Please model this.
Amino acid sequence: MPARLHRSALFVPGHKPDWVPKAVAAGADLLILDLEDSVPVADKSRARGVVRESLEALAAEGQDRSVRINGFATGLALDDLEAIMGPALQAVRLPKVESADDLRELDALLTHLEKRAGMEPGTVQTPLDLETAGAMRDACDILRVSPRATSMMLGCGPGGDAARAVGYQWTKGGTETHYLRSRAVLDARAAGIEYPMVTSWWDVRDLDGLRADAALNRRFGFRGMVVMHPSHVPIVNEAFTPNEAELTHARGLIAAMEAAEREGSAAVTYEGDMVDYAMVTTARELLDLAASIDAGAARAGPRAGR
Model:
């Protein structure tokens, strides 16, 4: 399955089926059903069946979905995979990846289970979540290990696995993670990942801070954010959707260049800037990005936040 643009992704605890419709209504482009940190140990076994049912319901609605399983070190990963494997499973997120060997092992397990389920090997994607120092350092090499790894998410929020692994002290300004964000985008692009994502803001009440952080992440080159609360989804969707002023500028730039070409020129001044073919390509990509967002909204139907 080709990678899709996800401006927003929302975590849903796997043992809370009543939360799934609310998450869908929030308008997130992607739902991440969680079997790991948000599920108490006593509920993990029951959560597997709940997640499988949720996957099937979401597939019927056309909602993009993935599942975060428990890590290999827990001894629960294989049971998780066996329980959720099926046509409704789009992607599996392995937590706390340290090296390329982790994705190789996950790939081998998925291939076996896909064959056993009568599915085409390679159907299930394996997004890479960067939340360990090893994964952050070697992200490009890890992403290149498997064609299943078609997307990537950097964790750089407060107090979580990434903060503990690197040792930074989180602030709302985010300067302590600027290097991590820049490096993650660079590694993703070098590995051919079109739509890198980030999770960096967990303050439920400070929506103005979220807007500023989302704008910062877009400037770094991210194409979406993973959020923890439904109220964050509309703000993030808006932040990562090209606005009308951007689209108007892109269309005008392309038109100016086309007019210059008709006069035999390969460069032109547009709104005070020199424009050449490279900038036209960038403008066309922006228009294509906006078109893909519109197509995704049409595919998913009328939902809040789109």
